[in-house]
Amino acid sequence: MNKPFLGFHYDIARGTYLKPDVFCRALRLAAESGYTHFLPYLENMIRLPSMERACPSCAYTAEDWTRFEGVANEVGIEIVPHFNVIGHTESIGPAYPELCGEADRGHPELDPESSATREWMRRCLGEFCDFSHSQYF
User: Fold this and answer.
1) How far apart are CA 44 and CA 136, in angstroms?
2) Is the pTM of this model over 0.85?
3) What spatial distance separates the first Cα and last Cα of the chain, rounded to whole Å?
4) In contact, 88 and 41? CB cutoff 8 Å
5) Radius of gyration of the chain from Cα atoms?
6) Coil, strand, or helix at residue 12?
7) I need a labelling partner for 50 at 20 to 30 A (CA). Which of 33, 78, 92, 98 fits?
8) 67 contacts 24 by C-beta, under 8 angstroms
9) Secondary structure (3-state) at 104
């Protein structure tokens, strides 16, 4: 019988920037605690080419992510990244003002109806994962 889904949500965006070694320790601890899935909330913490200007200097690289996947495989936990750039744009809007519509509470907000924003989001997703099976893009 398969284990039931037991996810550990880990918010590492907006100032809670974990060093790669800490991320790996968190993966191991989650697996040791019986979790089956590790759900890091990434926002702008993945250094994607299409989001480079909005990333902090400590954003994870492709090499970091490969290491994280290796640790996850080693300890038997699945990583399910939460990559939300439309909802939280405190760092992204100022770096890419051409994608923004009206400001909300002093922060420029991405305009999800803009063709430029939609194309940018497709590029970001394509740089991060295979979403070719999605009916929404």
Assistant:
1) 22
2) no
3) 35
4) no
5) 16
6) coil
7) 78
8) yes
9) strand
Percent above pLDDT 90 for the chain: 26
Q: What are the DSSP calls for 84-113, one per residue?
A: --SS--TTHHHH-GGGEEEEETTEEEE-TT
Do residues 111 and 64 make contact, with C-beta atoms less than 8 angstroms apart? no
State the amino acid at position 41 in one-letter form.
Y
Q: Which residues of 36-65 are buried (b: 16+ CB within 10 A; e: fewer)?
A: bbbbbbbbbbbbbebbeebbeeebbeeebb
In terms of phi and psi (left: phi > 0; alpha: psi -120 to 50; beta: otherwise), the region of 14 is left
Q: Is 82 helix (H, G, I), strand (E, B) or coil?
A: strand
User: Tens digit of pLDDT for each residue in 6-15?
Assistant: 898 888 776 6
Q: Which two tokens stand for residue 7?
A: 């996810």
Could you tell me if 71 and 92 are in contact, meaning their C-beta atoms sit under 8 angstroms apart? Answer: no
